[in-house]
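Why do we care about 3D structure at all? Because function follows from shape, and shape follows, mostly, from sequence. That is the central idea of this module. The next example makes it concrete: a single protein chain, its amino acid sequence, and then its structure expressed as tokens.
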Amino acid sequence: MYQKLKECKSIKEIYEVIPEEFYEKCAVVLIFFMNMVIVVESLTKIIYNKGSYWNVMQNYNLLGKICLIYVIIYIGSRLCKLKSDEINKHFKNNTWDFCFLMLFLLSVVSVSVAHNKTEAINGDWFRQNGIRAYVVYLSLYIIGKIINTEKYKRFIFWTITIASTLQGILIYKGYVNDTGRYAGIFGNSNHCGYFMTMAIFAMIGLLATEKNLIAKCIMTVIYGFNIMCLIFNNTFGCYLAVIAGIVFYVVVSAVKNRKSYRLMYYILMYIHIIFVFVMISIITDMHTGIVSNNFNITGNDIVKVTDRSEDAGNAGTGRWRLWIHAMKIIKKKPILGCGPENIQFEPGYKNEPHNEFIQIAAEHGVPACLFYILGLITLMIRKIRNLKNESEYTIICGAIVFVYLVSSMFGVMMFYTAVFYYIFLGMVSNDRNSTQYDNIGKNT
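And the structure:
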């Protein structure tokens, strides 16, 4: 290929020489480095107690720029090969891509109405979730769409599993030493919880697709350890998201495989996943009381809200009050919102609403939020209709997207956790990942 590149006389000829596999491999490498940033900082924290979430954020800013440059090059290659009518056909057949593009464009426009345009562009020092982050999100979404080969998806599952397990070690050390630090390398325990929630379903994917019995046993231990550490992390919204995600995965996978000759294998695998989760939850709760206590608190909070008690604002550790306040911003500025990262500059408001959908509507406007929801719905409908042709890896990526969306209803969208969501969302949206068969379960 190098010799052919030397002979090229135009950019178009260069694009024609570079094979499609090259872009896919580059995409995998970029995602690998994003996971390795967490791995390196985690090992630094474990060994030297010096790891910092700030280093993670800064490295992600650098990687985000590299991803953007890479995506610009990739889009250039696609435009050289596609005709205008094919571009129109793509958006017609992939409605969700048009919806996500409109979300991005409206987010850019919303900067114009922001009180603090500097933070609307760059984000604040903590979340760094301004429009610059949305540029990276769009880039990572496209990078996810490039990845089609299942061995690469499996490789990504493994890297995020390793990163999450290291977070679990840090959380376990914090719990045993009673340091009160249950955030791993992340700046807040909630942020660590969002990351681990997605990673746990990568582990479920590895459990579901692993054919070697010894490797399956090792992955079971890793899966169980991460569930235990997620409970120690004490982010109950993430724990509920895992429960919802397991139900989602079992139902969707069971519907897809209901006529498979390997149906018994899948049934045993579903039982295995559920059994490990339930037993780890029971055993951990017997020693800590975290799960049962959180269920009691949540039940009491629901009663407070439904009864409209004076203390209802404190429900969900104050989230209900934040949601109500954000809804006032939406009512006041429904079209373009208050601008990215600008809720804190609205009179009387100091914090994000801790609900991604409400946050998008408040910061970018109701139309942007509706495009986001419509994109997710149209993508889900397409995948359900084509479920019999989807691979098990695509279903797992769909489960990862689902659990993030559930957990995001209780949390703040953070630059260094949302990046993984958009990668997996891109993987799900790739129509090329449909297969007529898969080899999962053979020789098991």
